[in-house]
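Illustration 12: EamA domain-containing membrane protein RarD.
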Amino acid sequence: MKSLKGVFFALISSGTFGLIPLFSIPLMTDSNMGLPSILFYRFLFSTILMGAICLFKKENFQISKKDIFTLSWLGLLYAATAMCLIYSYKYIPSGLATTIHFLYPIAVSFLMVVFFKERKSIVLFLAAILSLIGVALLCWNGGGSIKLIGVAIASLTVITYSVYIVGINQSSVSKMNAEILTFYILLSGAILFLIFAGVSPSGIESIPDFTAFGRLALLAFLATVVSDLTLILAIKYVGSTITSILGSMEPLVAVLIGVLYFSEYFNMNSAFGIFLILVSVSLVIIFGKQRKEILSGDKH
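Figure caption equivalent — predicted structure in token form:
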């Protein structure tokens, strides 16, 4: 039952995370809001929403001094991921940016091999090669020039998000209540973006109209609170690697939104590139599942 819950939470998390372009790009283009302010309001609203959920459930907000440090750097990693992903939309299509971001499961596996002594495998190497070919095909799609700076910024999210996921699973906060953990990570991000927006040239902008407010609220609720909370629940139920692989909904949702809503270019190269990335990530998860079954069998 826990495994089924974990799969469900992981799919919800990745699907709602893929909605980020749907709300954030119109805020940049239609509402003409600066990225620092968008990020600040996103995290502010999501912190308030998550705090309200914790109060409703009568959760204990008390944490140790050690946990404050851990939650701060986890919040920094998540904030960096959010910032790099939304900044990459300025240079490359949102579907491409999110698909590049989806390489994080492979990075998670490499981190587990290097730092936590998981067994090395040729499958992991093959998955990395396939994923790089997939990204190359996405960049070389014939739909206009792809700015390498956008690819580089989106690629940074692979590092920050993979360390974030492994950090949640391997740190002292892994046993913390999911709602409280999510609240403090979002609070850390809100504080960081308050400082970031405050020192930016435009400062903290006011929300221009009700439409912008609605988009910010949906960005905060669906693409932040729901996605973050279900991500943490998924990690608790099925672990980092399985959660990462089930993130396949994320690029698919983002690409569909990009093509259907923002008229982003899509051709056979794009389709084959996404296919290779999904195959590479699937190889990682299948290998991970088989490895766990073998190790489990050795113990009995």
